[in-house]
C-alpha cells in the first residue's frame, strides 16, 4: 500500500530523508518547496563542485556530495548536462535521465540545497568566443579555482585570466597566450598561479619577478636566464622585502638551469629532501 510520505510526523519524515542516497535526495528536493527544505536540513554535504564550459554552450556540472548514514560517510558523484534551451540530463551512475528543469533553475536549486554560494572548480575546455566569458561569470560569480584549457584560443585565454582571475583564488593556465607583456597576469593577488604549457615557454624577466603579487607561482616551462635569476636573488636578499607577496616560486626550464650560475656569488647549501614514513 502506498504511503503518503509527506504526511508522516516530522521526526519520521526526517528519518526517511536521511536514509535516502545522494541521487534520490537531489531528485526528492526538486518535488516541491517542502521537499527542498527537508533536504536542506538533512545530512547532505558538498565536497566538490565542478563546472565545465565547452564551445557548444553546454555546462557539465559535476557534484561530489557526502552523506552521513549510520556513522558512515557515503560519497556519490552526480553529473548534470545543462544546455541553455533544453531540459537537463542527469547521470546518477545508472545511465542518463532527462529531468524537466531549466539550466538556470537547476544551478540555483543545487547551490541552495548544498548550502554554498561558491563552486570549487571552473574549467574552460574549448572556448573561442570572448563575449561568452560574460555568460560564464554571470552563471558562476564565485568559484575557488579556474582552469583554462589548452584548446581555448589565445585571446580568450588572455581575457579569461584578466576577467575571471580576479574572482578566483587559484588559476591554472594550460596554454601560454602569445602576447607581448605577461606582467599583467602576475599582479592578480592570487593564492596560486600555475602555468602548465609544456610547448610554449613562460618568458620572464627580472622586472616580472619583482612585481609578483601571488602567494605561490609555478611554471613547468620557463624562459629566463640564470643571470636574471641571480640578479633577482641578490636584490631580494639585500632589500627589505617584507612587502613582497610570494611565499613560493617554482620555475622549471626544459633546458635545466645551471645552479652554479643562478647562485653565483651567493652562499648556499644543497639540502636533500627527506621523506618521513609513519
UniProtKB/TrEMBL annotation:
Segments forming domain F-box: 2-50
Family matches, as Pfam families: F-box, FBA_2
Superkingdom assignment: Eukaryota
Protein name, per record: Protein CBG27678
Amino acid at each position: 500500500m502506498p504511503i503518503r510520505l509527506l504526511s508522516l510526523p516530522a521526526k519520521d519524515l526526517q528519518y526517511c530523508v536521511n536514509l535516502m542516497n545522494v541521487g534520490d535526495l537531489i531528485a526528492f528536493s526538486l518535488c516541491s518547496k517542502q521537499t527542498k527544505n527537508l533536504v536542506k536540513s538533512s545530512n547532505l554535504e558538498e565536497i566538490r563542485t565542478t563546472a565545465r564550459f565547452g564551445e557548444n554552450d553546454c555546462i557539465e556540472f559535476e557534484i561530489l556530495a557526502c552523506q552521513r548514514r549510520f556513522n558512515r560517510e557515503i560519497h556519490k558523484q552526480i553529473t548534470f548536462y545543462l544546455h541553455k534551451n533544453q531540459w537537463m540530463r542527469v547521470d546518477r551512475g545508472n545511465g542518463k535521465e532527462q529531468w524537466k528543469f531549466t539550466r538556470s533553475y537547476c544551478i540555483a536549486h543545487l547551490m541552495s540545497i548544498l548550502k554554498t554560494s561558491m563552486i570549487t572548480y571552473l574549467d574552460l575546455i574549448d572556448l573561442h568566443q570572448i563575449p561568452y566569458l560574460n555568460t560564464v561569470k554571470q552563471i558562476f560569480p564565485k568559484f575557488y579555482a579556474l582552469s583554462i584549457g589548452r584548446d581555448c584560443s589565445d585571446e580568450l585565454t588572455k581575457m579569461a585570466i584578466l576577467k575571471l582571475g580576479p574572482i578566483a583564488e587559484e588559476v591554472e593556465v594550460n596554454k601560454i597566450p602569445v602576447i607581448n607583456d605577461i606582467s599583467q597576469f602576475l599582479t592578480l593577488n592570487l593564492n596560486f598561479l600555475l602555468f602548465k604549457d609544456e610547448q610554449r615557454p613562460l618568458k620572464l624577466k627580472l622586472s616580472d619577478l619583482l612585481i609578483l603579487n601571488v602567494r605561490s607561482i609555478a611554471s613547468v616551462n620557463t624562459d629566463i636566464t640564470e643571470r636574471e635569476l641571480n640578479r633577482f636573488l641578490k636584490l631580494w636578499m639585500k632589500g627589505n622585502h617584507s612587502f613582497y607577496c610570494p611565499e613560493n616560486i617554482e620555475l622549471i626550464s626544459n633546458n635545466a638551469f645551471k645552479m652554479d650560475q643562478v647562485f653565483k656569488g651567493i652562499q648556499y647549501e644543497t639540502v636533500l629532501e627527506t621523506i618521513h614514513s609513519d
